[in-house]
Structure formats: structure tokens, C-alpha cells
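The pair is set out directly below:
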Amino acid sequence: MIYLRLIWSYLKIGLFGFGGGYAMLALIEREIVGPGWISEQTFTDIVAISQMTPGPIGINSATYIGYVAPGESSAALASPLFGILGSIICTLVVVLPSFLLVAYTSHLIRRHRDSAVVKGIFAGLRPVVVGLIASAALLLMNSANFGEDTRQVVWSIILCAAAFVMVYFIKWHPILVICISGIAGYLIYI
């Protein structure tokens, strides 16, 4: 049954997805695109949309994938009600391990925050999180994001650099930059 497979996949994502949304991307891609529930193009679209909508990418992607996966797996489950059920299940399952872990460990960490062991654990986790975020960046450097046409790759690099300059140096609001980039992308790629 698709719901049990979704629960298992998102339980693994929730348990082992350290470092936030970008660090979880490689795991989400392996668990969701690998079985064929969504295409690589749809996955990159989910990443883009999740960045423009409020909330963490892991939860946003779980909600969307939970909605579309039942219909993709079986025509009998193509009803919006099965999609809503999938969304609720995936969203709750991806959040549950983190919620339980934080509820349990926050008391221990607060009590032992000066311990060398706790400091060592956090010092060891930092480079792992950086590595996971770097792997997410490499994961997103694919033809689904940049296209196979050289012109499209060049325009993508120009848009990325322009957005960086607008936010970091000119100090424009990120929402304004997202809107401008969306309009520019529409005009360039139509």
C-alpha cells in the first residue's frame, strides 16, 4: 500500500535528515524520486516552490508529495481525498521524529550543556551538516534545473548572480528579488 511506503520513507527522512531542509534534499530525492513517485523535474520544481512558500522545505515537500504520490501509484487513488490523506500522513510522519527527539533531548542538553561530550557531539555534527548542504547544492546542479541548452545555463548563472547582488550588496528585499526573478525567468524562457 502506498501509504505504508510513504510512512516508511518519511520516517527515515524525519529520523536521519539532520541540518535542515537543504541537508535533507539528497535523502528526500533518493526516497521519493528513486521509487518513481515523482520525476526529477517535479522534484526540482518542488524545491523551487518550497523555497518561495512559508515553512521548511522538508515539510512542504512532504505535504506535496503525500498529495501526488497516491494518484501516481494507482488510478484508483487519484481522488483529492486520497491526496489530502497522503499529505496529512507524510507531513505528520516527517515531523514526528524531530518533535520527539527535541522534546526528549532538550532536557538532557540543558542539564549537560557544559559537558565535554555534548560539546563534542555538536562539534562533530557541524561539518556533517555543512557536507549535507553541499551535497544538496550538487544534487540541484542538474539538467532539470539548468537545462541542457547552453543558452539556458548561461541565463541561469546570470539570474543567480543578479539575485545574489540584489540581495547581498544592494540590500533589496528577498521577496522582491523572487518576484523579479520569476518575471525575468518567464520572459527569458518562454
Observations:
- The first helix runs from residue 2 to 16.
